[in-house]
Design brief:
- This is PspA/IM30 family protein.
- InterPro entries: PspA_VIPP1.
- Keywords: Coiled coil.
- With 221 residues, this protein is an all-alpha fold.
- Helices cover 94% and strands 0% of the residues.
- It has 4 helices and no strands.
- Helix 1 runs antiparallel to helix 2 and helix 2 runs antiparallel to helix 3.
- The longest helix is centred in the middle third of the chain and has 73 residues.
- It is rod-shaped and about 200 Å long.
Length: 221
């Protein structure tokens, strides 16, 4: 029993070291759980055998005690009847049953102590299995979180489209187009104003020339 317990303690103690070095901790935990499950099944089978054996030793012990008590009563009855030889034989058989009862009692106490140790080990195995299974669930959740974080980083990490920056670029482009359009419109307006101004200047010049011609004609006539 103590050897089995030392093996279990060493195995449990080495689990954390194996997890720290493992690339896939869930796989390491699954291997450990499978091994522990096998040991639990074997320990349960051994426990049933020990329990049956211990109960049999207890029954043998109690039966031997009952026979010893029965022979003692028979010896008393024989003495009361004056049959000393019969009483002697009954007491002789009583001693045999007492010795038998003592041997079975010793075997029973030893087996019962081992049964208690086995029950304790079995409970420790079950507790350990539950604790490691809970740790497995934690690692599964942690690995899922890391997987989702990787997907998030791949989707929105560096090199991915930044919608805010994209819209800013569009706004800048539209602003450039708007400024260019406004500049062209201003240039057209300036051209039209220049033509109007030029037309007025020509009209003024023609009017002046016309007045000069009228004056010459008046002077000549």
């Amino acid at each position: 029993m103590s050897v089995l317990k030392r093996v279990r303690d060493m195995t449990a103690a080495s689990l954390n070291d194996r997890l720290e070095k493992a690339e896939d901790p869930v796989r390491v935990i699954d291997q450990f759980l499978w091994s522990t499950h096998q040991e639990i099944n074997q320990s349960e089978t051994l426990h049933r055998q020990y329990a049956a054996h211990t109960n049999n030793l207890l029954r043998q012990w109690k039966e031997a005690e009952q026979w010893a008590n029965k022979r003692e009563l028979q010896a008393v009855t024989a003495l009361k009847a004056g049959e000393e030889d019969v009483a002697r034989l009954a007491l002789q058989d009583k001693v045999v049953h007492e010795e038998r009862a003592e041997r079975y009692r010793t075997l029973y106490e030893q087996s019962n102590a081992e049964l208690i140790d086995l029950e304790q080990l079995l409970q420790e195995l079950r507790n350990e299995y539950r604790a490691v299974y809970d740790k497995r669930q934690f690692y599964v959740a942690k690995m899922e979180s890391l997987r989702l974080q990787q997907r998030l980083n791949a989707r929105y990490g560096p090199g991915q489209a930044d919608t805010g920056n994209l819209f800013r670029k569009i706004d800048d482009k539209l602003t450039d187009i708007e400024l260019e359009t406004r500049s062209l419109r201003d240039l057209r307006r300036m051209g039209q104003e220049a033509l109007v101004h030029a037309g007025e200047t020509v009209k003024h010049t023609i009017d002046r020339e016309l007045e000069q011609l009228k004056r010459k004609l008046q002077q000549g006539g």
